[in-house]
Amino acid sequence: MSQCAIAGVTMQPMGILARSGLRSAMRCGVPRAGASASSTIPQPRSLASYTGLRTDSLGLPKRSQQVAPHRIHSGVRAFSVKAAAEEYDYDLFCIGAGSGGVRATRMSTSYGAKVAVCEMPFATVTTETLGGVGGTCVIRGCVPKKLLVYASHYAEDFKDCQKFGWTIPEAPVFNWKTLITNKNDELDRLTGIYGKILGNANVEVMTGRGSIVDKHTVDVDGKRFTAKNILIATGGRAFVPDLPGKELVITSDEALDLPDLPKKIVIVGSGYIALEFACIFNQMGSEVHVVYRQDLPLRGFDTEVREFLAEQLKQKGIHMHPGTTPTAVEKTADGLQLVHSGGVIEAEQVMFATGRKPNVKHLGLEAVGVEMHASGAIKVDKFSQTTVDNIWAIGDVTDRINLTPVALMEGMALSKTLFGGVQTAPDHTNVACAVFTQPQIGTVGLTEDEAKEQCGDIDVYTSSFRPMKNTISGNEGKMFMKMIVDVATDKVVGVHIVGGDAAEILQGVAVAVKMGATKAQFDDCIGIHPTAAEELVTMRSVTREIRKTK
Fold first, then answer.
1. What is residue 274's predicted lDDT score, i.e. its pLDDT?
2. Distance in angstroms (rounded) separating the CA atoms of residues 257 and 177
3. For residue 193, what pLDDT is reported?
4. What is the dihedral of CA 366, 369, 373, 378, to 10 degrees?
5. Residue 43 has pLDDT above 70, yes or no
6. Residue 475 in contact with residue 159, Cβ under 8 Å?
């Protein structure tokens, strides 16, 4: 099967494209709010069908062999796994089997610890009783989102290829159901892999909702287990503010699993989730409106990046509504309408991407003395230890840096601290990240404002240009690159890229920034020609010299 077919693209006579345009040819309907959401799209299976392990009456894998106790080197927080195992059911019990929980548990067993993890039953849309092994990233976050990004990009590729000499004999027609079916098949495969990883690592997996009874006891749907250490890795959940009609809206969970592609959608919010979905739906042919209260989208990112991206999104046909506050969502005869400070926008779907909140409800944290921030995030020290000495927390539930690779790092560090004999604090400096809008953003290090505050004297290098691919194709998309240099040390303290393959380019650059590379070292590097990335080693002229006020 071709890649286009997997992404949901089939071919129709070219006349359709000529008469109605690519976007119109790609559109299809979506049920009104309150209508049946039933679909023939197959859903991924549960973890139970993958582990390949015999289970007992509790659904726990039966071990074919016991893990030999591992010798632990001296360390303040390390302890004898064997001694702990004699007193408790487990050395470590983890609530939550997302990216961080899976990494922490399987690495802990590699040190000889006896470990269990509990996770709620699988569902593509999370609730207070449904979740799934793999967590947000695998089931309803990074992975399915990126698959939809890939699918949506074909629309631009079909347009661009024609001036490169390609003739498309049949007009591409997008089929949302095909895409979602194939997306769910991939989730099916990945969920199975996670189950096998845990089984092969001798981590005992329990299906059910976990809560803390006391500092050494966890309850899983009425069955209690004791543990020397308890880890909270329950992640976060999409947050919808309290306003009239909030029950009518969807979040990113539902957006990844809609039965049909909406002809028109309003997205409330301007963070990376809101903008990524705006680009996905726009490229697939939906009319997209983005409503947000700030002057610019992507609060927290570099200002020039925000300005550049906003212009690029407008150019692609996305309707941006800055300085706008939503007040209510209402049903109409044809769907929904978002009431806001400037009027009303009618649409088939209204999606709220207004942030995520730590998933701490019904965990029993307050009863055992685990303190939380006002936001609901669990308070932890630099080693991920909570205010209760044997209870730990990692990942989005701590609201430090809410990225999958960060949760993996925190899980790895915790296993070393508890069972590797080495106190290890996760390093949250110079964490690179990407926004999979179209165009993409890749960023590492300080923004210009942060650099002015932390470094004082800085040099700023910028470049905006039309990539070679876009010259022949007629694509109006541009690329933007920015490098921020600390004058005192010549170190590159921030790099920001907006454009095609920005995330792929930025990953290599992030290594250099993490290592403390200087601008002179960037300049000494020979560029790869012809590429967009070579611009990073050929920027010689300073755009702005910013000095401390004397």
1. 98
2. 9
3. 93
4. -90
5. no
6. yes
What's the residue count for the chain?
550
| Residue among 469, 460, 498, 467 at smallest CA distance from 481 | 498
Q: Confirm if 35 and 333 have CB atoms less than 8 A apart.
A: no
Span 274-291, pLDDT tens digits: 999 999 999 999 999 999
72: DSSP letter: P
In terms of Cβ atoms closer than 10 Å to its own Cβ (0-12, 13-18, 19+), residue 73 is exposed
Which of these, 63, 384, 423, 121, lies nearest to 230 by C-alpha position?
384
Question: Helices H, strands E: what count in the chain?
Answer: 16, 24
Q: Which of 73, 216, 428, 529 is catalytic?
A: 529
Q: Catalytic residue at 362?
A: no
How distant, in Å, are the alpha carbons of 58, 95, 211, 335, 360 from that of 220?
10, 9, 7, 41, 15
Write out the two tokens for 127. 């609730």
Closest CA to 440 of 543, 351, 308: 308
- Is pLDDT of 298 > 80? yes
Tokens 């726990």, residue? 60
The predicted structure's pLDDT at residue 548: 86
Instruction: Pick the closest to residue 98 from 64, 126, 65 (CA basis).
Output: 126
Strands (E), 1-149: 9-13, 90-95, 115-119
Q: How far apart are CA 390 and CA 218, in angstroms?
A: 13
Q: Residue 161: pLDDT above 90?
A: yes
Would you state the structure tokens that stand for residue 222, as one six-digit string?
A: 């009425």
Decide if 57 contacts 205 (C-beta within 8 A).
no
Confirm whether pTM is higher than 0.70. yes
Can you tell me which residue has the tokens 């548990």?
105
